[in-house]
Amino acid sequence: MFIDEKLYRVAELLGDPKAKPPRPALIPVALSTFYGMVADGRLPPGRYLGPACRVWSGRELNQFLNELLASEEVPANRRRPPARVRGSTTDPCQSRSAESTHCGGPSLEQAGG
Asked: Which of 18, 37, 70, 108 is positioned for an S-S bond with 42, CB 3.0–4.6 A?
C-alpha cells in the first residue's frame, strides 16, 4: 500500500514545495499531466463532493499504482534517452575530421590565430 485510504484533493496528491511546511507529492507529475492521465483513463476519474471539489480515494490510487508497477509502464515524459556507446559515431561532432573543431568550426590553426 502506497497511499493511505482516505480522500485526496489534487493539491494533496501533487504536493506543494512552496507551502509551509512543504507537502511532498504522492504522485510526482505536473497538474496538466495529472488531468491528462485522468482523461486518458490511466488514473481513476475521482468523485465530486461539490461543484468545485473533486477527490480521489486512496484505495483507487493504490490499485492504479500496483497496476502500473506490475506492467512496468513508464510515462513517455519520464523515459530516459538511450545511453551513448563509447566510440559511437552517432554524434555529428565526433564524425568530423580532425582538422575542424567542435561542430565544424575552423580550428585556431586554420583561422590564423
From this structure: 37
How far from the centroid of its chain's Cα atoms is residue 27's Cα? 10
CA-to-CA distance for 24 and 13, rounded, in angstroms? 8
Query: Structure pTM?
Result: 0.56
How far out from the chain centre does Cα 16 lie? 16
Distance CA 33, CA 27 (A): 11
Q: Which three cell numbers stand for residue 78?
A: 519520464
Residue 103 grid coordinates: 561542430
What is the Cα Rg of the chain in Å? 24
At 67, is the secondary structure helix, strand, or coil? helix
Q: How far is CA 17 from its chain centroid?
A: 17
pLDDT in tens, 67-86: 877 776 555 555 556 666 66
Q: For residue range 3-29, what is the model confidence (pLDDT) as tens digits? A: 788 999 998 899 988 889 998 988 888
How far CA 48 is from CA of 38, 55, 63, in Å, comes to: 14, 6, 20
CA separation for the pair 110, 103 (Å, rounded): 15
